[in-house]
Each structure stands twice: as structure tokens, then as C-alpha cells.
Design brief:
Elements: E1 3-6, E2 15-18, E3 26-29, E4 32-35, E5 38-39, E6 43-46, H1 57-67, E7 71-75, H2 78-81, H3 96-105, E8 109-113, H4 129-132, H5 143-160, E9 171-175, H6 187-199, E10 205-210, H7 214-220, E11 226-231, H8 235-241, E12 249-254, E13 265-267, H9 270-282, E14 286-290, E15 303-306, E16 310-312, H10 331-341, E17 361-364, E18 366-370, H11 371-376, E19 381-384, H12 390-393, E20 399-408, E21 413-420, E22 422-427, E23 430-436, E24 442-444, E25 449-459, E26 463-464, E27 475-482, E28 485-486, E29 490-495, E30 512-520, E31 526-529, E32 535-540, E33 543-549, E34 557-559, E35 567-575, E36 582-586, E37 594-596
Parallel strand pairs: 6-7, 6-14, 7-8, 8-9, 9-10, 10-11, 11-12, 12-14, 13-37, 15-26
Antiparallel strand pairs: 1-2, 3-4, 4-5, 15-16, 17-36, 18-30, 19-29, 20-25, 20-29, 21-24, 21-27, 22-23, 22-25, 27-28, 30-35, 31-34, 31-36, 32-33, 32-35
Helix pairs in contact: 9-10
Catalytic activity: Hydrolysis of terminal non-reducing beta-D-galactose residues in beta-D-galactosides
Active site: 179, 252
Family: Belongs to the glycosyl hydrolase 35 family.
Amino acid sequence: MTSSQRVDSDATDTEIVPAPTTGAILTWRDGQLYRNGQPHRILSGSMQYFRVHPDQWEDRLRRLVALGMNTVDTYVAWNFHERREGEVSFDGWRDIARYIELAGEVGLDVFLRPSPYICAEWSNGGLPHWLTGRARALRTTDPVYLNAVDTWWDQLIPRIEPLQAKHGGPIVAIQVENEYGSFGSDAGYMQHLRDGLRSRGITELLTTADGTMSDMQLNGAVEGAMPTFTFGSGVDRALALKAPEVPFMCSEMWGGWFDHWGENHHVRSADSMMGTINEILEIGGSFSLYMAHGGTNFGYWNGANHDRVIQPTVTSYDYHAPIGEDGTLNDRFDALRARLQELHAEPLPEPPANPRLQAAAVAKFAPAASLMQVIEAAPAEHASQLPLTFEEIGAEDGFVAYEATVAYAVDSVLSIDGLHDRATVLLDGAPLGVLERDGALSLELPESADAARLTILVESLGRINYGALTGEGKGIMHAVRIGRRIVHGFTHRVLGDEAPVAIAAAEATASGAATATLTVAEPLDAWLAFPGGVKGSVWLNGFMLGRYWEIGPSHTLYAPAPLWRAGDNEIVVFDANGLPATVEIRETPDFGPTEEFIGS
């Protein structure tokens, strides 16, 4: 049988209320998890299909099996599938059903965490920008938000329902929402999601996942779902909160951590990671290692945090996982595999050989377009007296160029009210400087002008994925001023995630777009570096790999083998502040200076 629960602030007052049997393959009673009636524990690793090239899904899943896992968990990133409202894709990289089927074929169960909100250091926590631009109360029963969720689930759930264990598929558990107890308190919202899963045919085990505070467990719970925990350490705290009837499970055991630009690269030693995992195993608990294989925030899909200042996440999502970003296996893999082997009656399969890497190489960049040429290649649209936000003009991420004609006297100062997040300011095509959301927000204008062309190129550094600011807008949120006076009369140009058009600038420029050709014998994984570049976006054969930034910590971008071709390969960079002279293929990544970190 399955059970539901109510978690009070005092664990000793927790009441377990039996719920109707649903026919799930995983059930629980008396503190024990069962699979088909036999005692069971989930040994899971997190690996997300949207962060791994689809041609590498099977390889990485087989590494998970060799690690000793019996389950893979993955979020479903709503905004990855519905970038524009009503245009839903489940093809190619977005074929979530194929990913789930592959997991089953290699022998893994699937623990599915199907949105609407996922956090995951992913842009907007997985919520589409077009929804958060208009919904006032996210993750509540607000009709605008909830109607969009229902419409999305009407597309998603019918694709995953046939893949449940009851139909012979690999899905054995489904998470209702993600760490809701640290966000809100709308019990009706959680009930609506639970009922929405059940009414659409989901009968397998439902779970929730929250941190190790009583308030989080209280507000994240919903009757009919098994509560679980998220932590990097603190098994004792979780045990104190767990009701006796509920099996112990950590749905996210943080074996490493993610990185923000301008910080150190976070690592966690094998001994530290194994210390927490051993504590869980010694009490008969289940866990999912977050992350077992981290992958990459390709394109502009990285999220951001906000703790008094914006904290954008880097392109790499290596997470110091046992299976590295390029599939290499490390000492953490060896330590965990040895421990999990003790829980398997048969020898674990040998992992696939580490992927081969491109040999070191260097190619020079040739300027392709000046910064203004790149900007002017995009159409000027959306005329408005005041600057519009990204959401108001339908820009998902990347850059928007705001343009207006201005007149001003000597000793004038330009400022921006509500900059999200970074702006390169140009006057008559000449760069004036860079403004930062949490730094300088004003610039002195040169001399005076009767009709100067003002261009403000605003970059979204990453949509916030956690906390009360999730879903906030990007761009210029309020106004541009010269002195006290508001600037009026703007047009807008959207520079998205497509490679800039090569215009073949006649002269070398300090900023803009540049191209290089790397010739390789065969498609293999590679690490790319861009010495001398300031802050840029990179495309390999038309696919956007992500961003580099001189502030680090990481100074390489992962370029997976399926994106390469034998022979010539085109690298395009767009850097508004300082183009690199060369691109280098490196045989190992450079994640920058390290810092031991344990999430709690």
C-alpha cells in the first residue's frame, strides 16, 4: 500500500494517514520501501537529458550502471520544450521519451521530476519566460499560472504515462514539485499538481523533496506523496524530522556544487561525499546523488542566484560529479563504485572507456563584424517611448540593443534605472563603457550633442532559478536618464542564441564577432579556451556552446564530439568588450581555483 502524510513542525506529532492503493511498483510501510513487495532501496544518480548531447545519452547512462546505480533521476525542463507559447517540441534533443526508454534498456529505473518548477541552476528554474513575464503569483493556484501548467501537462504527461512500470516501462517514481517548502505555502497548489498527475494516469509512487528544516517539510508536503529530503550533509537532522512510517530517502544528496562567475570552482572530496552516503546506507536509506553526471549549460540556459547581488551560474555544470563533464571517471567514481558493489550480488559491469579527446591545437580569429555591425544586423523593432523589457518584446535571453537619439549639454551623466543585468553603452557607435546591475549604473557623456545615437546593449546573465526573485524580468526595467531627465523614443534589436552574421569587416575591431577554423581528423570531444577574450558567446558549427568570461573561475568550454566534423570546423565568437586573438583546443579542462564546499 502507499501512504500519505501530514508533517507538523514537531516530528513527534507527524501523523501518517493511509492512502488508497494505486498499483505502484514502489510502495512503503513501516519505514520500509518495497519494490514488487520485496524490500528495496533506491540507488540513484541524477543526470539530466537537457545537459547532455543526445548522441551521448546512452554512454553516460551506461557509466551510471557501472557506478552501481539502479535508478537515474532527471528533471523535465519546461522552458526547454516550450520556448514560445504553444510551440511544444519533443523531438531530437527534447525527446524525453527516448531518454527514458534508453535508461530502461541499459537496466535503470527512472525517477522522474517533471516540472513545472525544477530549480536545477537552470534558466528561470525551468519556467518559460513568456509565462513568468505575465503571471503574478508563480507556483500558486493563481489562474494565469495554473492554466499554463495544465496546458503544458496535457502535452507532457501523455508522453510519459505509457513509460510507467505498470506498463512495463522504467518510470517507478514521480516527484510532485521541487523543494516547495522553501518557497511558498499554497497547499491548494500542491494538491492541484498531485491530482493533475493522478487524473492524467500517473499511478506510480509520488514524492516530494524538501530541505532539512521542519518548516520546509511542513509546507512542501502533500497527502498521497512520500516526503524525501535534499541535503549535502546532516543525516541526523533529516532523521529527526522523518516520520517513523516513512522510508528514509534523500532525493538530492549533493556530492558537489555548482559555480558562479567570479567565485572559486566548488569541489567536494571523495571522503567527504562518501561520509554522507555511508551514513544513509548504514540506516538502510535510499538516495539520489546530485549530480552523478552534471553536463553543461549549453547556450544561454544557465540560471542565476541572487543573494544581495546577481550570481549567474557558469556554462559548465560539471558539479565535481563522479562522471565528469566530458564523461571521464575520477576518484569519486572509484570510491562510490567500490561501496555500491557491496550492495550488488553480481559484479558491476566495467564502465565504457574514457572518451578520446582532440589533440591540442590553436587557430587565429579573423574579425568578421564590428560590434555595431552585429547589432545592426538585427532588425530595429518595437518602437516605444520607454525601454521595454525582454519579456515585453518576446526575447528569451541573450542580448537586446536599446537605441534612441539623444541631445545633451556638457557635463551630462547617463544612468539606467533597473538594469538586468549588464550593459555595454555606445554613443554614435563608439563604446563609452560597461554598466553592471550591482555596480556602476552611470557614465559621463563626452562634450555635448544635438542628435547623438545612443545604443545600450543589455545582456541577460542568467534568469534567477531559486527563491522569491525567480521569474523576474530582464533588460531595462524602468528608464534611461540623462541627469534627471528621462530618455524617450526607443527601438529594440534582439540578439538571441544564433551565431552573428559574418559581415567581413574591412578592419580589425576590438569588439564584435570573429571567426576561426579548426581542422581535425575526426570528431572527438574537446575543451576550448579563448585567451585574451573578455566576455563572449561561442558557437561551434552553428551550435552555441555557451559563454566565457575573464573573471572565471572556468576558462574552458566543453565541445562534445557529436558537434564536430572531420575536416574544417567553424568557431564564431561574439564579444562586446574584447575579442580573443586565438582559440585553443586543450586536452583537459580549466575550472579555475578550487574551494571545498559542502551543501547543507
